[in-house]
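lol ok so funny story. i was supposed to be doing the assay writeup but got distracted and ended up predicting the structure for this chain instead. priorities right. anyway since i did it might as well share w the group, maybe its usefull for someone
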Amino acid sequence: MAAAVARGWAGEFEGMLFSDSGSGRAQALAEELNGEVASKEEIARRADLVVLAVKPGMLDEVAPDLQEAKQIVSVLAVVSLERLEGAFPGAEHVLRVMPNVGVEVRRGVLCIAGSASEEARGKLELLGHVVEIPDGDFDEATAIMGCAPAYLALAVEAIADAGAQAGFDPELARELVVETTAGTAELLRRKHPADVRKAVTSPGGSTEAGLEALDREGAWLAFKAAVDASLERMRG
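and the output, tada:
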């Protein structure tokens, strides 16, 4: 997620600083985006905004090195705003953010809670659609918008593969489904999903047959089960 955010910001700022715990990812990302590798302490001193993107269990390990940071943006799943504020008592702003991978192409969704400066808010809005939600709603939001790109990608993959198995060119099948998905997303901004579904479904037609097959195979319940499973995993 840190890489997706950084790629979404590429070209907007004078420079970005990167650090990791020895994985080498910071160096690779710095080379890709013309950034700079620095220690956590240096990042805390120099950066206008520090994006915290480590495994949740590492918060207590990395927080002492970032105490000079003035603005913290955390993308740590399941780590509450209260805990973040306790970990960075000297920060002027502590913001909890749950983005999805669309931020890489500046079409992401970012749920936020906490104290955001106007500067930080503006930087996040470059990455996509920003929505303020209560801190207690982050698990549900994550299950809906954080995990959903994988579910939608699975649907696109399955439809395109089915077309290829029916004899259609595989690359062209993927192109058609991807562009159809993009267009449908724009339509869904204006219309309720049920209305879009009904508009495409002629009585006795091929779409109706397909929807009936999805119903028989339990597609609706499968997507609900995916959201429920994500929530169960996050809640331990």
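DSSP finds twelve helices and seven strands in the chain. The longest helix spans residues 170-188.
back to the writeup now i swear
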